[in-house]
Amino acid sequence: MSTDLKAIMDRDERRRRMLNDPDLTGDLLLLTLALDEFLVSRNEQGRKKLRNWAWEVAHLTHGNSDYHLRYWTKKVIADDLPRYEPIKPKGRGCVAPMVRREGACGNAGTTSRVDRDPLTGDSRWVHYCARHKHLAGPVEARIREWVENGKPSPPANTGGVLRRYFDADWDTVYRWASGREPMEGGREATPPRPKLRLITGGAEQLGGDS
Fold first, then answer.
1. Residues 6 or more apart whose Cβ sits within 8 Å of residue 124
2. What does residue 101 show for φ and ψ, rounded to 5 degrees?
3. Which of 10, 20, 26, 82 could share a disulfide with 156, CB 3.0–4.6 Å?
4. Cα separation of 76 and 73, whole Å?
């Protein structure tokens, strides 16, 4: 293990940022921590080549599991591909506007479509109930127009979190993992989780009556 105090402090600070990043959860967080450990160990051992790095990272997290050694690292990186995803509503309520009252229908949707702006590609999932499913027709027409316009796309709004922590040729890595072309940028960073502080002392320190 390194005895370089600055290197140790840099590593600890980096890992604190990883653990406090709301966009790093589940397997992505596990991969990020394991990849950081792999790179630190490689530097300490004086290893310059990254041969079998995906296997070694999976071995750090899942031991000798054959499935994870073969596929896990690649899958997690592919899931972090910088890309644009249509906005998803919180529920599946029908979005059809009502005539006799303000607002949307709200009944359970049975038909789902991605509604795209033909000029910008901005898109969102929309749902229609059985009564209003005929309103999906104009949505499909907008999709056809979007295709005719060359499928314009807004900037990436998801993925790309790994880029925040490691310097690498990420375009090549994302292509290797996903077989798709990564977009520039990625998900906008979510503000760190608030830190709660314990207030000690009596009521007088809180402005209460003595």
1. 86, 87, 88, 89, 114, 115
2. -150, 160
3. 82
4. 5
What are residue 126's DSSP bridge partners? Answer: 113
Judged by DSSP in three states, 93 sits in strand
pTM beyond 0.85: no
In angstroms, the CA 170 to CA 163 distance is 7
Calpha distance 85→159 (Å, rounded): 10
User: What distance in Å separates the CA atoms of residue 43 and residue 21, rounded to the nearest whole number?
Assistant: 25
For 116-151, what is each residue's pLDDT tens digit? 999 999 999 999 999 999 999 999 999 999 999 999
- Amino acid present at 158: T
C-alpha of 46 from chain center: 33
* Cβ-contact 58, 66 below 8 angstroms: no
Q: Give dist(CA 195, CA 96) in Å, integer.
A: 42
Residue 164, token pair as written in the block? 């925040």
Length of the chain: 210
